[in-house]
Amino acid sequence: MNHQPLQTIFDVYTEGAGPSSTHSIGPQRAARHFLRSLETAPARVRVTLYGSLSATGRGHWTDRTVVRTLDPVPTEVVFDRSDAPLPHPNTMKFEAIDAAGTPYREWTVCSIGGGNLRNADGTPVETDALPVDYPVTGIQEAMTYCRANDMPFWGLVEQTESDLWPRLEAVWDTMEETVRRGLTSQQIILPGTLELARRAGVIHHRAEAMQGTAGELGLIASYALAVAEENAAGGQIVTAPSCGAAGVLPAVLYFYKNVRKRPLRAILEALATAGLFGSSIRANATVSGAEAGCQAEIGSACSMAAAAAAQLMGGSLSQIEYAAEMAMEHNLGLTCDPIEGYVQIPCIERNMNAALRAVETAIFALMTDGRHLVGFDDVIDVMASTGRDLQAAYRETSTGGLASLWRRDIEQRLGLGARGRSPR
User: Fold this and answer.
1) 114-150: per-residue pLDDT in tens?
2) What is the fold of 139-414?
3) Helix or strand or coil: residue 94?
4) pTM here?
């Protein structure tokens, strides 16, 4: 496969409101961009959502996001469930309409993951991010470059990105605050018809009372749940690389900083390395669940977190790469099947499981010399091809997997009439 030059890691780390980078942050950015492009104010705007945006847009709050962003311009949101060919599974069309009811400006745009946008013709939508071109097209080339220049992965990022450390510190500040906010939230029930109870605070309290490995694993789990629940509630998070997987990397880094007492600089260096791996996935595959299933979101987050953990444990370039490869390899084929379209079940627990898996794969990688048969770039190519082969029902449409099970019988079987009674 022809690999593409890596772009800025700050396309991987995007701050915004949950619950979805493709369904809320992306449409919010698109709405703002569309308004700025208009020379005259419209009487109203019509936004048509297609594909996954139409299938799960209500559960992901896409409609309320664009209405709120375009306010005070009256906005009509249309959910188009037709099977017409699309340039991307997350496609939307904005139309500016004058007082006579005539559309005078139209724009079709795709939300491609992590809050990033692409025009229907495949060209990227302009962003405020500084243009960056890495001298490598994948992680294998990054390892070769780093060995030749006697530098760690984060050294390549430092060499390429401007003002790296203050920008990364701002990213980490938001991540850390999201964990703390999620652990101390007084909200009992998450928004939506599932009436799902928040559990991060309770799990954290119980983990603190436990000793040894079980307690540490419980703490990591609570940190991941905290961020995932904040995201599900529409709170402020950082994509890593998406909203739906935003709890994985912060949970691992928060553990190493606050439990293992690693210094801030080490955490930022790990964040840089994780960003490099995330950027490679974005350049050569996708981080969109609608495009490739949850392997593209949780799998990518697990890889990024595994790379960060391996580095924090003193891993070599090969061991870090192996940890990231292993993390993705064992998420291959993971479907995106959110119940009722909410980023709650199975999304919240998947963040917890992926955070724990990231640490486990890092530990195993450091028990080896880092040599293995399948490279990280190879497994990302396989992830992309697997995503193309997944049926649409398993790519964020809420029509297959767990989502279909819920529609059939789970609500009646579990008797979820009482508020806060969680199917978990």
Assistant:
1) 888 999 998 988 766 667 889 999 999 999 999 999 9
2) 2-methylcitrate dehydratase PrpD (1.10.4100)
3) strand
4) 0.90
